[in-house]
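Standup notes
- DV: blocked on the single-chain target, sequence here:
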Amino acid sequence: MENKEISQAVIGRLPRYFRFLGELKDEGVERISSQELSDIMNVTASQIRQDFNNFGGFGQQGYGYNVEYLYEEIGRILGLDKTHNLIIIGAGNLGQALANYTNFERRGFLFKGIFDCDPTLYGKKIRSMEVKPMEEMEDFVRANEIDMAVLTIPKTGAVEVAGRLARTGIRGIWNFAHVDLNVPERIQVENVHLSDSLMKLAYNINRFENMDLSGFERGSYV
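- DV (later): unblocked, structure below
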């Protein structure tokens, strides 16, 4: 089952399942049906069952899903049953904001170091980390068993830094730079384009404003 090819669409829904199930668990909910979960998440019950069947199903006929068990299993699938050591490349506003976001630690993502090429930032304390020069990055990664690197630098330097990271044996890159990275297949890359997300929001607002509202009486809901 672990070797089965899972679509990115399914993988993309797993963190959302995990979040909602965590809220249900905190509220003391012990079990839930796919239909009840569907009503909460606005995902069809059949889609939920199909998603979970990729990993074995988890449910029992006539019972539904045990919330705590399902929460823990999805966490295991997501790799949240272990800790991950990370570094941040880029000590600007975004890098500092990520370093100060404590919820990552509760999920097992531990920031161990932060690096920048600006000498005026060297030694600056961000939480428990001091900003270090880029020249120290490779040795730090190897000495501290770093799993992932977060790139919050301009795209002009991201490609070169990704190449350096690849030679350290890093396993994953969370890339906020607006550039595609050419790294070995063994390194997983998750691209985050904040402006793309904002433009998607603008598109949806524009689409809604231009919808055909002929079936409604304008102002009737005021």
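- Follow-up: The longest helix spans residues 8-26.
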